[in-house]
Amino acid sequence: MSEKSVISYRNGPFATVSMGLPGDHEGKTATRVFFVKGAEKLALIDSGLYAGYPSLEQGFEELGYAKSDLDLLLITHEHMDHVGNNGPLKEQTGCTIIGHKGRADRVADNMLNAKTIVHAFPEGEDFDLNVEYLDWMAPNEGPLDSFVADGDIIDLGGGVKLEVVECLGHSMSEIGFFEHSTQTLVIADPLLPVFNPVLYLYEDPAVMRATFDRIEAFIRERDVQTVIFAHEEPRTGADTFELIDNCRARVDGIEDSMLRNIKAKPGIGFAELRDLVCDEFEKVREWRALVSIDASLKAFEAAGRIRQESGGWVHAG
Ligand SMILES: [Zn+2]
User: Fold this and answer.
1) Does the structure show a pLDDT above 90 at 29?
2) Rg of the chain over CA atoms, in angstroms?
3) Which H helix or E strand runs over 16?
4) How close is the Cα of 79 to the center of ligand 1, in Å?
5) Rounded to two decimals, what is the model's pTM?
6) Any bridge partners for residue 268, and if so which?
7) Does domain 250-315 bear CATH number 3.90.550?
């Protein structure tokens, strides 16, 4: 093989293909998709980003799989770097695409997928949908063919079984998979890497924190040996506890910063608050941060800790 291998990790039934990310992530983070081979079926977890399609094709070749060998494409969540090759894979392999039903409408419609997150708020409307989102996905979508829910088992044969583990918060329809024969937990984005160039992305802070607790308990109860992630290297179960604590601290840090800034600048607006929080943590001021800041504003407002006043936010304490 003259080209550099695209397989970054192999263990038991798993083989991981890495793809570099563009934009704010360029040179910093890659996304990964995971082949899982059972005695009867070949599955791929996530399809990655469109620019990574040649890597994915090389992955098939390196592993000695024909495209027609792919039986199942399992989707962790609807974000563009996880569903980008659904369309081409469906066309070229005939695979069945399976995921959580909650965001099936977004997986089936690239424009809806992009608009509902990048342009979720007027403050995000300056961001170019193509550059920020649509270009990461093939022009043809690959909608979900069927749905799975927490606890479902996808049996690939020969003892290779993937158990669906719901882990909501980063996306409110995210799932991971626990592989029984190797005690490997595959989770895409609920635990984001420490070196992430953008602010922690969560849609609901309480749900996100509950997921941190759930993953921690799951690793203990199931004696998880390895955890593999979309955006960083695999970790042992024990090393993952450290990452979980770091994720908790980052979500806490965002909320502490928000409250401090609202206290210091009564009437502060949404976009300015986003900018100050991003600056404090040296993160890019971008649309993902709007999602998390909005989620925490809603939670604080519901708890009576802040209130809206003349177009901005004031501390209620
Ligand atoms: Zn994501």
Assistant:
1) no
2) 20
3) strand 14-20
4) 5
5) 0.95
6) 313
7) no
